[in-house]
Amino acid sequence: MTRSNGVLRLKAGRERSLALRHPWIFSGAIQEVEGSPAPGATVDVVDAAGAFVARAAWSPVSQIRARVWSFDADTAIDAAFFTRSIARAVAARGGMLDAEHTACRIVHAESDGLPGIVADRYGDTVVVQLLSAGAEAWRDAIAAALQQATGARCVFERSDADVRSLEGLDSRTGPVIGALPPEVEIVEGGLRYRVDIERGQKTGFYLDQRDNRAILRRYAAGRRVLNAFCYSGGFTIAALAGGAQSTLSIDSSADALALARSSLALNPALDGARAEWREADVFAELRNLRDRAEQYDLIVLDPPKFAPTAALAPRAARAYKDINLLALKLLAAGGLLATYSCSGGIDAALFQKIVAGAALDAKADAAVIMHMGASADHPVALNFPEGAYLKGLLIRKR
């Protein structure tokens, strides 16, 4: 057995989830910690009888006290481990990058066997998020492995997500390798988009909605489109490319709308006169549109994360119901609603129940014609169902 920096002994019976290869170990499962491992250090996890179970990263502050790197006692957690693991994850996305698609997620944390590590590729730039103490401890090795696997000119860090505070980590952004280009552009489905790497949402672009933008594009022809919480206009540009009659895109961020306008300008074949951009509080503006009896043939609701955890689910449920009720009132007969939740605290069944309740209150007869999720570069490991964070419904109003 390759030894590590400490031993984490589990309570009797608490190794069962690990036997199913779930990568998280919660504080309540731990009997004792032998040694004094530093935050992010590698520890051997053993059962109550002392038998090896896994090798994991120690996080003394988080409720998730350890995240598993490997279930193999002979696997050393070193720079070579990250080189191999990241190369494997990148290779798995080989078919998703071509001249028509120059951006995708290349490392998806637990679902790629790399807890706390997220990496997205935007052409020659890779953006990495280190979200756990274990990932933080291997920062340099991870960046080097990402460059080696991709040939990227720049590896830029966006470790500024709120979850880092749960690990006792400060926020950090900036280049790790190379220099960020003055402007970053990508191609998706033949359409060009500008990406704000330094200040944009997530790592700069909602890559997880790639397939769903393509779906919207197929349904957009001749429709009046409302895109709420539009961020940088991904759904709007896809709708225009699909032949939308008109688009109204609403967001509370002036910077996001400016980014959206600049992306539209990169696609001169699209008719910019069909696009209206409106800076407003989305909840309030949806009510204003309802009060004016406006009608749309295709509505997109892609709000921010209302419930990062299950504890916030009740409040989030009210917000999701509110916006979906308003959207269904604004939707013309025969129209389509594409509605999404990226909240980890709201599962797919609950999300559909919330939308069904909204339809009932809106007195709208509607049917789900498609269930949607993240694109294939965001896999969901069978041993980690929590990875299925993005839920979407395509609904037709009768």
Rg (CA only): 22 Å
Shape: globular
State the CATH architecture of the largest domain.
3-Layer(aba) Sandwich
Unreliable runs: none
Number of strands: 20
**For the terminal residues, how far apart are their CA atoms?**
63 Å
Strand content: 25-35%
CATH level-four homologous superfamily name of the largest domain: Vaccinia Virus protein VP39
User: Fraction of residues in helices?
Assistant: 25-40%
Helix/strand structural class: alpha/beta
Number of domains: 3
Task: Characterize the main sheet.
Answer: 7 strands, mixed
**CATH class call of the largest domain:** Alpha Beta
Keywords:
3 domains, Archaeosine Trna-guanine Transglycosylase, Chain: A, domain 4, Rossmann fold, six-stranded mixed beta sheet, 398 residues, 20 strands, alpha/beta, Transcription Regulator spoIIAA, seven-stranded mixed beta sheet
Topology:
Layout: E1 7-10, H1 16-19, E2 24-26, E3 30-34, E4 42-46, E5 52-58, E6 64-70, H2 79-92, E7 103-108, E8 117-122, E9 125-130, H3 133-137, H4 139-150, E10 154-159, H5 163-166, E11 172-177, E12 184-188, E13 191-195, H6 210-219, E14 224-228, H7 234-241, E15 246-251, H8 254-265, E16 275-279, H9 282-291, E17 296-301, H10 313-330, E18 331-341, H11 348-361, E19 366-372, E20 391-397
Parallel strand pairs: 1-4, 9-10, 14-15, 14-17, 15-16, 17-18
Antiparallel strand pairs: 1-3, 2-6, 4-5, 5-6, 7-8, 8-9, 10-11, 12-13, 18-20, 19-20
